[in-house]
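Project standup — Tuesday

K.O.: blocked on the structure for the chain from last sprint. Re-posting the sequence here as requested.
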Amino acid sequence: GFEGGQMPIQRRLPKYGFTSRKSLTHEKVRSAELAKVDAEVVTLETLKDAGLVKKTTKSVKIYLCGELNKAVAVQSNAQLLVSKGAKESIVAAGGSVTTEEAQVA
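H.V.: unblocked you, prediction finished:
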């Protein structure tokens, strides 16, 4: 309401928008960037070591973007997902995508 000439509280306080907490731990990687990874098998840890994702990243999705000229082996699991187009691109370049099933105890 009216505050007698004083600046109203809704104008004094800083404005903050919404930030998804998922975006802080989830990242996307282009399929063409997989050529930068020196490891034999691409996993979440090798992507972190290559500097393609932050160290705090908990899950990654590889999507189709650009040309992949190097044969890479990708080990997919709950933390590392591969899109359908990226999977076709990796296989066409002579690489492979293996899916690691979650173990139920």
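K.O.: great, moving the ticket to review. The mean pLDDT is 89. Helices lie at 9-12, 44-49, 84-92.
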